[in-house]
């Protein structure tokens, strides 16, 4: 594929990352508003996190979508999946009780999970050898742009925000002048989800026009394996099993931290930091600005410089952020700012960048998306359990934040150590070359 074509398709598919992270952060930016409107407890919030795009919803979708993408094609996923996403977002927008809200989060999360393995696989298979890392970084930038805009919208539309007036007027016109204040205020979150619906519709139209991956087409012409055959091969081939263990380990340990931060970051700012909903969304938004800037810079060098450098750099920023918070707490504005910036830098050079890159490089085409889907299932599924556990550690008012912070440091250290020990050398190699080096001619 020509360089311009590779970039064009990458941008279209990367909108899935915008919608993935956007769905998580849209819930996070308005979680306090939904809590007030529906009278939700911390346990309710834990379930929303657990079944959302942040965890179990995405986990269920990923294991389905990965193997479907290997059987029916990457384009098959792009043709239908975002219709599911739009359905879930619409349910959230119209929610009037907790079961509706939970169902919307779950459906949206399943769609996110279905799309992720196909997206990363398609980007790698459509990239030139010397642009594969760059294109994955562009996808990661979209993962940063989504929250940045969603949190900006959340801040502008939130009670007291610059655009809350029109939102309030819209709410009164729909549910009446005598509606409860909490019912009016939650409309700001409904509008934020409406922006995701619009982007999903645009992305769906763009992705339907993409050509199928040439590597998938070539592989299907010579390989008639069924989904069951591919699943068996994934779990019986020693190289594949070791690769799954390595990638799942580095991504899980990092994602247990990131998943909590993705959903609870504004809530932590409000409860442990004592900030307003608007201020919390502003700081979270600024953190994502650093994500985008960091990833943009790295995109120019990731195909030229050893991956080890950027991997260590990102985790060092994350560890420094949490160590500083343990020492200074989030009760001071200086501590909050340092934490916000460092966490943004970490996300820009994060484990997820290299998990996405290596996950799409280290498996043969016949079960490339399926392997990623299985790993995503494991990671996001365990993140769902961790999301529930975290609510107990953290407490209703953030009284367990220091203990939670120590847990975060331990997980990040584990991701750093495992990554350094098992890091592959794939830079500058074609996917075909990597496959032959690792699996020979038999897979």
Report the order of strands and helices.
HHHHHHHHHHHHHHHHHHH
Shape: globular
Give the mean pLDDT. 89
| Secondary structural class | mainly alpha
Share of helix, binned: over 70%
Query: Count of helical segments?
Result: 19
Compute the gyration radius: what is it? 21 Å
Number of strand segments: 0
Low-confidence stretches: none
Strand fraction: under 5%
Structural notes for this entry:
This protein is mainly α. The chain has 19 helices and no strands. α1 (3-38) packs antiparallel against α9 (187-207) and α3 runs antiparallel to α17. The mean pLDDT is 89.
Which short descriptors sum up this protein?
mainly alpha
Quick synopsis:
This protein is 81% helix and 0% strand.
Helix/strand layout:
Layout: H1 3-38, H2 42-50, H3 56-72, H4 74-93, H5 98-125, H6 132-157, H7 164-175, H8 181-185, H9 187-207, H10 214-222, H11 227-236, H12 238-271, H13 277-299, H14 307-328, H15 333-348, H16 351-361, H17 368-394, H18 401-422, H19 431-439
Helix pairs in contact: 1-5, 1-6, 1-9, 1-12, 2-5, 2-17, 3-4, 3-5, 3-17, 4-5, 4-9, 5-6, 5-16, 5-17, 6-9, 6-13, 6-16, 12-13, 12-16, 12-17, 12-18, 13-15, 14-15, 14-18
């Amino acid at each position: 594929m020509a360089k311009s074509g590779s970039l064009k398709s990458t941008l279209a598919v990367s909108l899935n990352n915008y919608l993935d992270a956007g769905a998580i952060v849209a819930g996070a930016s308005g979680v306090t508003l939904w809590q007030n409107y529906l009278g939700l407890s911390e346990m309710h919030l834990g379930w929303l996190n657990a079944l959302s795009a942040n965890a179990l919803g995405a986990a269920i979708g990923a294991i389905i979508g990965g193997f479907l993408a290997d059987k029916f094609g990457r384009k098959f996923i792009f043709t239908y999946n975002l219709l599911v996403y739009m359905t879930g977002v619409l349910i959230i927008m119209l929610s009037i009780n907790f079961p509706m809200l939970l169902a919307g989060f779950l459906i949206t999360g399943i769609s996110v999970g279905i799309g992720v393995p196909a997206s990363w696989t398609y980007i790698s298979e459509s990239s030139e050898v010397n642009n594969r890392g760059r294109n994955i970084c562009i996808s990661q930038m979209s993962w940063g742009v989504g929250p940045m805009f969603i949190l900006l919208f959340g801040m502008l539309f939130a009670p007291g925000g610059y655009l809350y007036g029109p939102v309030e007027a819209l709410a009164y016109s729909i549910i009446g002048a005598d509606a409860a204040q909490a019912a009016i205020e939650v409309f700001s979150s409904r509008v934020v989800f409406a922006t995701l619906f619009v982007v999903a519709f645009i992305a769906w139209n763009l992705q339907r026009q993409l050509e199928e991956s040439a590597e998938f087409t070539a592989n299907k012409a010579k390989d008639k394996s069924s989904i069951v055959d591919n699943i068996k091969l994934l779990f019986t081939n020693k190289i594949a099993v070791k690769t799954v263990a390595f990638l799942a380990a580095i991504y899980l340990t990092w994602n247990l931290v990131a998943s909590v931060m993705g959903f609870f970051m504004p809530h932590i700012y409000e409860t442990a930091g004592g900030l307003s909903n608007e201020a919390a969304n502003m700081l979270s938004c600024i953190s994502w600005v650093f994500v985008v800037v960091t990833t943009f810079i790295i995109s120019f060098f990731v195909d030229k410089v050893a991956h080890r450098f950027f991997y260590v750099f990102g985790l060092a920023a994350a560890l420094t952020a949490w160590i500083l918070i343990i020492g200074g707490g989030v009760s001071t504005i200086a501590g909050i700012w340092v934490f916000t910036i460092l966490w943004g830098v970490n996300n820009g050079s994060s484990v997820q960048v290299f998990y996405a890159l290596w996950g799409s490089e280290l498996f043969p085409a016949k079960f490339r998306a399926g392997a990623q889907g299985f790993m995503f299932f494991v990671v996001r599924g365990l993140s769902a359990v961790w999301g529930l556990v975290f609510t107990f550690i953290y407490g209703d008012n953030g009284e367990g934040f220091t203990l939670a912070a120590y847990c975060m440091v331990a997980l990040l250290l584990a991701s750093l150590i495992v990554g350094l020990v098992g890091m592959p050398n794939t830079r500058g190699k074609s996917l075909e070359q990597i496959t032959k080096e690792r699996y020979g001619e038999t897979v």
